[in-house]
UniProtKB/TrEMBL annotation:
This protein's name: Small-conductance mechanosensitive ion channel
InterPro entries cross-referenced by the UniProt entry: MSC_TM_helix (IPR008910), MscS_archaea/bacteria_type (IPR045275)
UniProt source species: Candidatus Kaiserbacteria bacterium RIFCSPHIGHO2_02_FULL_49_11
Transmembrane segment boundaries: 20-45, 90-111, 117-138, 159-177, 189-210
Lineage: Bacteria, Candidatus Kaiseribacteriota
Sorted UniProt keywords: Membrane, Transmembrane, Transmembrane helix
């Protein structure tokens, strides 16, 4: 009688285990299919983004700003396309991973991924985009301002160009930090201070560089008045 009872218990246990496995395997297969699809889509989109960023020649602007040496000292190669493409790739993969875990019923892991990873990765991508766009705009602004100042015979043409370039870089860095939510109040205070400092810098550079141009212009006016 006791042996029969133990036999029934073991039989019921193995039956429950088999039913559990039979119910879990289809969900596991579906979850794996979703994850593999996400990996493929993420890899393709990451490669596309890397090629697009590479075609914009952003790395050339970063090199001209002197960032390549900084990356090399840190042990990294300057490749903004690969970096941004990697962010996009892993973001897509994590999105599909969340869907896979939802199929498997792993709720706690999903909550962590959604609250920590998926909410923060887009902010990182936006911050990186801000810096990449700033790299291009800063280089263009430096050339335009320096060229205009040289055309006006200003002595501080290169200084004005550098001020314009680094003004854009500073604004971009502060905007990126604000996007990431890093010390928001401090960043806002620093932003105000930077505006004041740059205003003074532009004023001094323009005033010192424009002295010769202003003197030449006044001299031409005097000559015209005397000629009349």
């Amino acid at each position: 009688m006791l042996l029969q009872t133990w036999t029934e218990v073991l039989q019921q246990s193995f039956q429950d285990l088999w039913l559990g496995i039979a119910a879990f395997v289809p969900n596991l297969i579906v979850a794996l299919i979703i994850f593999v699809i996400g990996w493929i889509i993420g890899a393709v989109l990451g490669r596309v983004v890397a090629q697009i960023v590479g075609s914009l020649k952003v790395d050339n602007a970063l090199r001209s700003a002197g960032f390549e040496d900084t990356f090399n000292r840190a042990g990294f190669n300057l490749n903004s396309g690969a970096f941004l493409g990697g962010l996009v790739k892993w973001f897509i993969i994590i999105v599909f991973l969340v869907a896979s875990l939802e199929v498997l019923g792993l709720t706690q892991v999903n909550i962590f991924l959604q609250e920590v990873v998926l909410l923060y990765v887009p902010q990182v991508i936006v911050a990186v985009l801000i810096l990449l766009v700033a790299a291009v705009i800063a280089e263009v602004a430096r050339n335009v301002v320096a060229g205009a100042a040289k055309a006006a015979d200003m002595l501080s043409a290169n200084l004005l160009g550098s001020v314009a370039k680094w003004a854009i870089w500073i604004f971009a860095i502060l905007a990126a930090l604000n996007q990431l939510g890093v010390a928001t109040a401090f960043v806002q205070t620093l932003f105000t201070g930077v505006i004041v400092a740059l205003s003074l810098g532009f004023g001094l550079a323009f005033g010192l560089g424009g002295q010769k141009s202003a003197a030449d212009y006044v001299e031409r006016l005097r000559g015209e008045v005397r000629g009349k």
